[in-house]
Amino acid sequence: MRTFSARLSRTVTTAACTLAALSLGGQATAAPPESSLALSLRHSDGTIAVTQLHCDPAGGSHPASAQACEALDDAGGRPAALDSAGPGTACPMIYAPVHASAHGHWRGEPVHFTTTYNNACLADVESGGVFGF
């Protein structure tokens, strides 16, 4: 009985050490995204929405990260140069201003951008989806 218990203890200890070694460096970690932006929208009622956008590869908590990354790529990473989503997208003409900001880096260059849109729908459309969250 004692030998079985000692063998079981050694087996469990060896397995635990192997798992620890793998988690501490036995596997390659993913490279950080090439571009990362913290985006926020402050609505006229005082609420604030925030999200994180990663590009190259697309990810983060942004609900449409691939679309937002593509729009920023087309704008050379400059939020001020974002184009609208194009014809066919209509927004209500309700004035409920939202203050948008983007801070972080795009392919190694710092990004600090703020602007105000007339409402949240226009923020989404006029930014090509970057501020669509």
From TrEMBL:
Residues 1-30 form the signal peptide. It is found in: Secreted. It comes from the Bacteria. Pfam families: SSI. Residues 49-119 form the Subtilisin inhibitor domain. Keywords: Disulfide bond, Protease inhibitor, Secreted, Serine protease inhibitor, Signal. Belongs to the protease inhibitor I16 (SSI) family. This is Subtilisin inhibitor domain-containing protein. The keyword Transmembrane helix does not apply. SUPFAM superfamilies: Subtilisin inhibitor.
